[in-house]
Design brief:
Subcellular location: Membrane
CATH superfamily of one domain: Immunoglobulins
Shape: rod-shaped
GO cellular component, one term: membrane
Distance between the termini: 130 Å
Organism: Macaca mulatta (Rhesus macaque)
CATH class of one domain: Mainly Beta
Keywords: Disulfide bond, Membrane, Signal, Transmembrane, Transmembrane helix
InterPro entries: CD300_family_receptors, Ig-like_dom, Ig-like_dom_sf, Ig-like_fold, Ig_sub, Ig_V-set
Mean pLDDT: 76
Structural class: alpha+beta
Low-confidence stretches: 1-15, 145-154, 218-224
Strand content: 15-25%
CATH architecture of one domain: Sandwich
Amino acid sequence: MRLLVLIWGCLVLPGYEALEGPKEISRFEGDTVSLRCTYREELRDHRKYWCRKGGLLFPRCSGTIYAGKEGQETTEGRVSIHDNRQELSLIVTLWNLTLQDAGKYWCGVEKRGPDESLLISLFVFPGSSRPPKQLDSTSAEDASPALSSGSSKPRVSIPMVRILAPVLVLLSLLSAAGLIAFSSHLLLWRKEGEQRWVAGRWEAHWTRDLAETCSSPSSPGKTLWVSACLSEMWASGAMASLLKEPQGNQH
């Protein structure tokens, strides 16, 4: 049993240590992705490639793209591959990703025996699920008035304000004029009521005193006419007292 484990370690573990890079990459539809697979010094002059994992029971490469010799870039369709031997890295770029590009890929290096490889999973999400882009600090400051106005309650445009301003001023003036007219009418009505009340009291008081005077015992058995009674009251000074008395009653 231990022998089998040692044999498996000799066959598998070197492949995991020979290449390093991202294990998973997530992008949205239409994006461009660039990844780097680094390899060991002893693999500098070996042939590198990029391929898609195929097969179920027996994994195999499909659509293999080989890097050019002496650092030349190779492009096929929407994929380019470049072997940077100075940095010991294989650079792979995929443009304009589609949903069909999602899957598992290999960065590989040919050598005697099993190739050295790194398995990478690529996830591609629909472009409609892309979150809104975040503005940088400068753009956010410049766009802050527009963003604040968009997030707050809708505001009336400037032309609409210019149209409504005269109407609002006119309505305010009409309201003030109506209030003043109502107050004046109320004061006038109150003043007229007071005058009618005073006149009514004066008339009632004058009529009562006139009746008492004209039927006073000073002229028993006589039926005086109003003119004669008034003349008698004027001569005796009673009329003057009647005319003055209502003014005192007001107080």
